[in-house]
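pasting for ref
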Amino acid sequence: MRATCENCGTPVDDQYCTSCGQSTANIDLPVVDFARDMASEVLGFDSRVRHTLWPLLFKPGQVPREYVEGHRARFVPPVRLYLLTSFFMFVVLSFTEFQVSNVEVDGRQVTAGSIAAPGPAETAPATEAEIDSTSQEGAGAFTVDLGADEWNDRLAVGFQRLLADPSAFNQVFIDRLAKSMFVLLPAFAGLLKLLWWKRLYVHHLVFAIYFHSFVFLLVGSVGLPDALGLERLARVTDILLLSVPIYLVVGLRTFYASGWVGTLLKSAVVTATYGVMGVATMLTLLVISVLAL
């Protein structure tokens, strides 16, 4: 007997109704089977994950190249993969605390309990916000001056609250960082468009999404030991982050089918420019998030 769609009553012979589009899947299943089917439907956890993750991780540039060439059916769509990997990374980051050991705002030492006045031996503060490269036990040391007393006062109070309750800052900062990626990612694709201008922008965007998905997976995986309190393992896995520039070079060469010399030069331009954009974004988000505390 021919099945009929339970939604509109149209006879159906396939997985979906040709009239209303509803799936013909049976939901009268044990809860385990139902949960597996839901995960496959909503998150795309099927064979496409296996066909996507392996080349994404170990064959840089292959997935976006094949995707723009029309071989799309076996891959997780770029936007879906981006959302899943970014969710994974930001969840992991939400369990790690931003740590800072020493803060100076306009020459004033900031601690969790007070804001000390500048000492007589201290030099004049910098004219712009800057980060001191020194650190103590893995925690950052900051020297900041926004150039206006009112803003410096607000920033000092914000850093005082950050030192007293880092978790409150993390929630604000991670949220803003996630939103900023929707600006940085198209900007990254724009850089690629400037260097490989003959290609359509959407092709560059596909590469940018898959590249960022790789970075999200890597950062999330590297941060996982720290989130779980495995400090020794975290120190070992940090070295994996050095693979990102290498991945980018190989990925660009594979995707654009260009020579090594041209790819290396253009990769250096992309890395330097995007690095400056990233640092500037992080500093801006840091100040904005601290002021919001």
